[in-house]
Amino acid sequence: MVDSCSEYEIVIEPAPKLWRGLVSSGAADAGRFVEAARLFRSQIGFEDDGPVIMSGHQAGFWHPGIVAKYAAVQGAEVFGTSVWLVADLDANGPTQMRVPRRGVDGVVRPELVELASDGAGHPDAPTGLRAPVGVADDVPVEFDRVGEALSRLRGGSSSLGEQVHGAAAALLEEVGAGQPVEVVYASAICRTDLFAEILEQMLRDPARCVDAYNAAVAACPDAGVRKLLVDADRGRWELPVWGIGFNEPRKPVIVGKGQALDASAHGPRGLLMTGLMRLAGCELFIHGTGGGVYDTITERWLGDWLGVTLAPSAVVSATMRLDLGFGSMTPEDAQALIALGHRARHDPGLLGDGDAANAKRRLVDEIAALECGDPARHALYRQMHTLLEKARESNGEQLASIDARVEVARSVLRSREAVTDRTWSFVLHEDAAIERLCSCVRSSFAGDATRNRG
Hints:
Elements: E1 11-13, H1 19-24, H2 34-44, E2 52-57, H3 64-75, E3 81-86, E4 96-102, E5 108-114, H4 144-154, H5 160-174, E6 182-185, H6 193-204, H7 206-219, E7 230-231, E8 236-243, E9 251-255, E10 266-268, H8 270-281, E11 284-287, H9 289-306, E12 313-317, H10 331-344, H11 354-369, H12 375-394, H13 396-414, H14 416-420, H15 431-443, H16 446-453
Parallel strand pairs: 2-3, 2-11, 3-6, 11-12
Antiparallel strand pairs: 1-12, 4-5, 7-8, 8-9, 8-10
Helix pairs in contact: 3-15, 4-5, 6-7, 7-9, 8-9, 10-13, 11-12
């Protein structure tokens, strides 16, 4: 479904009116892991007394497509308990922000700025295993509010991931994008019985686990997920988990059959993380467009390997372009305008000079009527060019206006990457636009709220 708030290109699949049915039928089949699955929610930090609708992302100041997922979780509270999963086992560098900068050549390019002060921990460590950070003194004005929010939350946060997510949620609340929902952190998965049992199953027969994983990856080539490494001759397999430690980079895990690992020193990679959440953490999981593709691998892999069935999923996203000072001009508009600028020098009609346009047309007809090589053709050509030069002089103001717009169009084309980029942080967009986006998403579920009250 494409939402009626078309300026935001909102996508919600399936339509919200079908979500109640998904949630009510969304109980996963955990198979032989049923007891560990029963404990999973309390072990990751929340108690529920009904269905859970979950979405999530890395800790960060997201682009509007992720904000749309956040708003969908808020709107889906009509179906049960809404929970946001912070993927804090990712090392995504959330304090590095991109800001658009226009160069002396008129081209807009992204500039990467670091908001954290020196000594902010290992940049390749997961955000859930890095300490909260201080804020640099030279934060660009575009991110003043981000710096202030990070500073406020530093003392009360246990990790960088918690600090950043808290700041993002607070900023969204400030712009009217809705109240924060309950939050869980992926790093908590490492302490659960379910993760320990799944890891034990991997170690018992890594070949079976990895073969099923790689077969699922091969069946979904469009997802862009690489296969796990296999060295069958040496009896070594790469597992879909990370070796983790405080303020340390994540390490790939390669094991032999029967090798022992400490579950608390390891964590799930992305596919396993969402797989565990859909197996035991929720009745419906909301993906973005990318996750909606790659999680088909998770379904196939865990189904073939463990014989389990995951809770259903939905897809929510949106697209907003940042106003970079070019107005509403798109690259396609720019190409058309540059072509117009070229034609306007040779077609006085485009400058509003109908008399000159008619005179040129008569000359063209006269030239066409003459034989090639006739000396009169050259004289008529010179007469036509003299006519066009006079038309340009007499319509100089209109032509200058077109030329100025053409220069903007050339800047748009040279800035194409920045103009078409949909991943600028929500902080860079107008507050009213972000509030409206969230309102559009949440309103998609309003009918279900009415039916609930009825």
